[in-house]
TrEMBL record:
Keyword Transport: yes
Official protein name in the record: V-ATPase 14 kDa subunit
Organism name: Phasianus colchicus (Common pheasant)
Keywords, ordered alphabetically: Hydrogen ion transport, Ion transport, Transport
GO cellular component, one term: proton-transporting V-type ATPase, V1 domain
Family: Belongs to the V-ATPase F subunit family.
Coiled coil feature spans: none
InterPro entries assigned: ATPase_V1-cplx_f_g_su, ATPase_V1-cplx_fsu_euk, ATPase_V1_fsu_sf
Taxonomic superkingdom: Eukaryota
Amino acid sequence: PLSPKEVFLTRDDIGIILINQCVAELIRHAVEAHTRSLPAVLEIPSKEHPYDAARDSVLRRARGMFTADDLR
């Protein structure tokens, strides 16, 4: 049987998974291990916890794709 994480990541009718960053921290290993483009896993802030860009896996990957010259 598939785990709940695997069920969401393998469904072809899901393109984006929104997850609070504080919850993503609880399953950081799974968030970091997901490398496929779909479904995209996007971390969002919650009312109770401030957003920390340094912990956002998508933002960290995006930063590694571009240099300062690319953004000029």
